[in-house]
Amino acid sequence: MTRLWCLDTNVLVSGLVFQGPEQVLIRPLQHYREPILWFPTLESELQEVLARKFELTDVDWPSVFPRGTRMVVPEAPPDLIKQAIEDLRDPKDGPILAAARFYKADFLVTGDRDLLVLAPMEKTLRILTTKEVSCQNLGQDIACNHEIPPGPYNPSRRPADPQG
């Protein structure tokens, strides 16, 4: 069963740059083709954070996430983004919530409390932390009995995430 994952920017950054639970989630997705929802606002924010915090620019996304691992889509419709913003304290979170709802993601994985507080009210979208994903073994069955090869993009020389 293929599931659609929507990963918040903080999860993607942590998973790409640090060793920790986010990387444990992302690595199997990179290799076993459960798609990650990918849209312009997410990519811009991700590029901005990687450049500002880690001086990483010009990331070749197709090499980081091989064919089939990103479901590249346009932004969710503006009226749905507006509705999502009304549900949130921080309007910057509107596009990811709207995209996850509109494209019917199975999971929105985030560390953002403003999104996590909505979890009990969502009817079909499961909003979870990375820890909840691993505790429920939602990502484990992807990697079961597979040796995951080294990722194409993993600056593992960086120290572990102190918040991870």
TrEMBL record:
Q: Which domain of life is it from?
A: Bacteria
Name the PANTHER family for this protein: SLL8027 PROTEIN, SSL7007 PROTEIN
Q: Locate the PIN domain: which residues? A: 6-114
Q: What is this protein called?
A: PIN domain-containing protein
Which species is the source of this protein? Kyrpidia spormannii
